[in-house]
Write a structure and sequence with these properties.
The complex is a heterodimer of chains A (about 375) and B (about 220). Chain A is built from 14 helices and no strands. Chain A is about 70% helix and about 0% strand. Chain A is mostly helical and about 375 residues long. Chain B is mainly α and about 220 residues long. In chain B, helix 1 packs antiparallel against helix 2 and helix 2 packs antiparallel against helix 3. Chain B is built from 8 helices and no strands.
């Protein structure tokens, strides 16, 4: 991102006034942060439907093509593998009726979807999707991500309450309890890579996994790094309200939880917030434990190196996402009491002990070397 | 250019925080008040960011907005009586509170004002730079080091405070088996008081429902 702006400066520096170049630089970053998440969201919904289809032994969304690639004109039976499905979904969402419960809190009902989507976009600003490809490299990156994404649960609470529906409220309360409980083990697991790298900055954490052709990932620091990765993934599943922790929107118990009373584009915003959060969490796991954009080929440098770095980041992130879908398709749901006792009696002690052991190991290694 | 931007950002954030604070104490709905408090907290976090205290800003959002406010909202939503009713935000003694707050504001302004260039004030404030004070290379690392060395005692005292709150919550929630006679006596008294209150509330409730009926009749007309 920095380099791009620098290049722009060199190219247009003479032709355009200084302030315009500065504004253009800002515009590039904003465009990236605004347009990238919806794009990712589209691909993710398609992938989810196709993969869940495979898990359930059916086809999934495979019919929607476009232009010359539509169903009639090609001999292909499944035009473009249904890749245009998300666009059809988007059109459907836009044309649906927007329903606001007459006895609910109208203003809060309107604000809640916006409050759900904004933090997801804000977090995107600090995620490095490739070598030097990051909008802002904050020195408290990890903490920033945890802090801003905790705003999501607030939006869900507001959504559940303003709908004036008992299922919505129950879903919102479940979300709040779950998110608060699992935030503790998640943050404690995040601390392990931070301890390894000695910094909260995401670029420093990725740098720390550079050795061995970019394959010395923190997940391979057995046993502490591996345990931290597993606990992080479990806690993250819960933070994302994903199976087996999808109690806040358990359709067999409370209709659809906090989003019961939402329709049309507002529902789509919640949906998008959820998916963008999924991508961000998979990306965070990639950055912290799987080396981020590091990998064989990045060392080549130049344009090829950049391409490799982007490839590795998306490869690992979507790999994590596929793992998530796999779990979603095959696991049953936990009960509320199991959920709470698992968080406080199992995960928290494990992660606390892990932090202690890791701290000792880091000091020992420093003393010995 | 930068300074102007800083001023714009500061006044926008300060205005947002103050407006949200005003909303907290004037809104009739308790849940909306709590949400306005969220906005105020975020505004304060923004001001921390302006002061280059990124760590404090992130912790402010994480702890106050992400944890404390979610718990407060949770408690409010569970007590449905509070959310359904229009609350009275002002009591008869609001002028006393307002004058105390004004007094506090004047004292704070007198302390802070001399630090702002271009403003002279009768009180000579004792603002001085600590010897060797400067922006550290790695603010977070030095913050951690200071917390573990120079400010270890306040740090530990704060954690003891949290522990006390935790123990208190457990004691309140713990199922009682062997009760002390004094506790039983107290519980008996509480139960009696509750009965009295309930009786009073029932009497009041009858009045309220009568009023409600009148109101709906008016609406019907």
């Amino acid at each position: 991102m920095e380099l791009l702006i620098q290049g722009l400066n060199d190219l247009l520096g003479q032709a355009l006034p200084e302030w315009l170049v500065v504004l253009l630089g800002i515009a590039i970053v904003i465009t990236f942060v605004l347009f990238f998440p919806p794009l990712v969201f589209m691909i993710m919904t398609w992938l989810l439907r196709r993969m869940l289809g495979r898990v359930a032994d059916r086809f999934g969304a495979n019919r929607v093509g476009i232009g010359p690639f539509n169903e009639k004109r090609t001999r292909q039976r499944w035009p473009l593998w249904g890749l245009m499905q998300p666009i059809a979904d988007g059109v459907k969402m836009f044309t649906k009726e927007d329903i606001i419960p007459s006895k609910g809190d109208k203003w809060l009902h309107r604000i809640a979807p916006i409050a759900a989507i904004v933090p997801a976009f804000l977090v995107f600003a600090v995620i490095p999707i490739g070598k030097d490809l990051v909008a802002v490299d904050l020195n408290v990156g990890v903490l920033y991500i945890v802090a801003v994404s905790s705003l999501f649960s607030l939006a869900l609470l507001v959504a559940g309450w303003s709908s004036n529906n008992k299922y919505s409220l129950l879903g919102a309360l479940r979300t709040a309890v779950q998110m608060i409980s699992y935030e503790v083990p998640m943050v404690l697991s995040l601390l392990i890579p931070v301890l390894f790298a000695g910094s909260l900055q995401l670029s420093k954490i990725i740098e720390g996994q550079e050795a061995w052709l970019g394959l010395r990932w923190y997940i391979f620091y057995f046993p502490v790094g591996t345990v931290a990765f597993v606990t992080f993934f479990i806690a993250a599943l819960s933070e994302l309200n994903q199976t087996p922790f999808d109690l806040p929107e358990a359709d067999s118990e409370i209709v659809a939880g906090y989003q019961t009373e939402y329709s049309g584009m507002k529902f789509a915003l919640f949906y998008m917030g959820e998916f963008v959060n999924m991508f961000l969490t998979c990306g965070l796991a990639t950055i912290l434990f799987l080396g981020g954009w590091q990998g064989p080929g990045v060392q080549l440098g130049g344009v090829l190196g950049y391409l490799f770095s982007v490839f590795w980041f998306f490869f690992k992130t979507f790999g994590m996402y596929c793992l998530l879908i796999w779990i979603r398709g095959t696991w049953p749901r936990l009960r509320v009491d199991q959920l709470m006792s698992f968080a406080w009696k199992r995960l928290v002690p494990i992660t606390l002990g892990n932090v202690l052991v890791t701290g000792l190991l880091v000091i020992l290694v420093e003393l010995l070397l | 250019m930068d300074e102007v931007l800083m001023y714009i950002a500061f006044f926008a954030l300060a205005g947002l925080t103050l407006l949200a604070g005003l909303a907290v104490v004037t809104m009739k709905n308790l849940l909306r008040s709590a949400l306005a408090l969220v906005v105020a907290f975020v505004g304060v976090a923004g001001i921390y960011l302006l002061l280059q205290a990124e760590f404090i800003a992130a912790v402010q959002v994480l702890l106050y907005v992400g944890a404390v406010m979610v718990l407060i909202l949770f408690a409010i939503m569970l007590t449905s009586r509070l959310t359904d009713r229009q609350l009275r935000q002002f009591t008869g003694r609001w002028w006393l509170a307002a004058s105390l707050a004004l007094l506090l504001f004047i004292v704070l302004a007198m302390v802070i004002a001399p630090a702002i260039p271009g403003i002279s004030f009768p009180l000579e404030a004792s603002w001085r730079e600590l010897p060797g004070a400067s922006m550290p290379q790695d603010p977070i690392a030095s913050l951690g080091e200071q917390l573990m060395t120079t400010y270890l005692l306040p740090f530990e005292v704060a954690s003891v405070l949290l522990l006390v709150a935790l123990v208190g919550a457990i004691v309140v929630a713990w199922p009682v088996r062997d009760r002390l006679p004094a506790v039983e006596e107290m519980e008996r008294k509480v139960a009696e008081a509750k009965k009295r209150v309930e009786a009073a509330e029932e009497a009041e409730g009858a009045e309220w429902s009568a009023e409600d009926a009148e109101g709906s009749a008016e609406e019907a007309e």
